Amino acid sequence: MSDATTNMTPDPMLEAIVGPTPGQMLRKRIFGHQGLMIGVVVLGILVLVAIFAPLLAPHDPYAQSLMARMKPPVFLGGTWEHPLGTDHLGRDYLSRLIYGARVSLLIGLVAATISGVIGTAMGVAAGYFGGKVDAVVTYLINVRLAMPVVLVALAVVAILGGSLQVVIVVLGLLLWDRFAVVMRSSTLQVRGREYVAAAKAVGCSTPRVLMSEIMPNIANNLIVVMTLEMAHAILLEAALSFLGLGVQPPTPSWGLMVSEGKNMMLFEPWMVLIPGAVLFVLVLAINLMGDGLRDVTAPENRS
Amino acid sequence: MSTTETNHPVLELRNVSKTYTVKQGMFGKPKPLKAINDVSLSLNRGEVLGLVGESGCGKSTLAKILLGLEDPTKGEVRVDGEVIGATDRRTLARRIQPIFQDPYSSLNPRKSIEDIISLPLRVHNIGDSNSQDKAVRDILDIVGLPQRVMRTYPSQMSGGQRQRVAIARALIMKPEIVICDEPTSALDVSVQSQILNLLNDLRAEFNLTYLFISHDLAVVEHLATRVAVMYLGRIVEESSVGGLFDTSGHPYTQALLKSVLTPEAGKGVPDTELGMEYPNPIAPPSGCHFHPRCPMAMTHCASIPPRPVPTPEGHVECHLFDSENDHNTGAPLVREGV
Ligand SMILES: Nc1ncnc2c1ncn2[C@@H]1O[C@H](COP(=O)(O)OP(=O)(O)O)[C@@H](O)[C@H]1O
Ligand code: SF4
Ligand SMILES: [Mg+2]
What we know:
The structure holds two protein chains of two kinds. Chain A is mainly α. Chain A has twelve helices and no strands. Chain A has one domain: MetI-like (MetI-like fold, Orthogonal Bundle). Chain B folds into two domains: 9-110 and 163-247, Rossmann fold; 254-338, no CATH class. Chain B has an eight-stranded mixed beta sheet with strand order 6-7-8-3-9-10-12-11, with helices on both faces. In chain B, strands 2-1-4-5 form a four-stranded antiparallel beta sheet. The complex binds adenosine-5'-diphosphate, iron/sulfur cluster (SF4) and magnesium ion (MG). Adenosine-5'-diphosphate is lined by residues 20, 22, 33, 35, 53, 55-61, 281 of chain B.
């Protein structure tokens, strides 16, 4: 019994450390998920288009030409000079679409990041500390949920005036509720695990427990909510711009393009359909990615 | 084996109580649940104190209080005779480490084995990354894991391997006291004895003091020098392992011993012996908490809580042993609804 060496040699069962690492398994699931791959590829293309807009756009998106107003796209009898035609001020539609990707992606990313930080901080604090903190956060979530986002955004933008910055900040300050709800419940699930108790027993400070034990185990849910809220913010920007209370002309925004095209909708429906379609494709790609990420990260969660 | 054992308590609970407030259902009124009820217990240097009792009797709560993970509602925790507050968790951590029950939950699935084992060193800034790396390799050897597991993740390991990792993490800072909270009950039977032997060997090698918690008296008996038996938040008997087999012990201990001797050892207390289920801790039975299940119960057991009676090796909390109690000749309690 006191012969400690019996345990010093690895027993034969230990040879059976098998299977891929969690990272390898995750990669395998990611590449095996069709919806996720489609979403990632489409979104990737749109991101590249936004980044390299100056190289890709055939014309200056702001350059007006009264001689070339409302030229139709090539597939409706137009010329290759303006592959997707021109708008009512003679600006090249394709160039405006390409630059518009920047606006949509920027708003989606920054607004979702702002609300992600707010919502995650609130949700994790509520879930981890419970008690009074939780009561306060739950109250704030309920207050926020009682406010109709579009109306509040409209009111604020109407008072402060519309601009890219105002729209981003307003959406960022409004869209944190889902982050808070999801992060709170994920934290509640994780905080009772024994590895959290083990980290505390080792002497980890509370911030360290939160950052290195709790956060890595709820990050997958954060990413999923992040994609959903990005899509949400992009659609809200388009809606606000359509109503004239979002991004202001002459900024090339897809929502604004739909708005500007709506007067001509009966005669030139492509002016609405083209920006509407790219908006649809962007949001669909982001949602495919979000759903895929949830599918892909869920099995690990369960084990 | 026990040359370093002394009678100096290194770790002590004095009149500790822990009351949780629990709500039953959505609209239920919050009710107090006494998970620990006025417990005094001391752990002497070098000993293995076994703590046994059925699931839900408060063993893990007691462990959490000793580890500083929960604050007692009442009473105090002393280390080397000095009162410890919850704020001293960091200093406490270097001396007292836990090994938890479920190695599937006690290892962070997002971290490599190397990160998990070296965490205590990194938190306490012990050594540089080279010496930490060496310490991890050394401790892997000691717990019987090959060094190549360093780059793997918990999900790639079996339960027994994971528990070895948890042991390595607990021991890498060379603590004095290890609180083992049912370290084998989540493992396959075939692996249990390997882990028990490893714990036993490590204790001898590193002069460790153990609080060894289990619901299985057979496991405790195998390792421990002294045993405390817990029932509904109270320590009902404290004794040496030898003294435990004395047929004159607490009726609850006797019942636990019988369950060890049944073919299905370790399945808790046999219901055939005790007649009914473990009581609801929110509404514990009056008098002696054990009276509804006690084969020796007397009339006054239902109304008067027994006092702790000192014995040569500890104490026992039962009217049968209270010589100053003149009720002892009382008639057997008529038990209802059995
Ligand atoms: N955080 C908690 N909140 C409410 N009740 C708890 C909590 N932790 C434990 N309990 C209750 O305290 C009692 C003792 O639990 P525990 O110490 O885990 O028992 P054991 O480890 O002996 O199985 C149980 O009735 C349990 O339901
Ligand atoms: S006090 Fe009475 S009921 Fe309690 S254990 Fe002793 S004999 Fe049984
Ligand atoms: Mg327990």
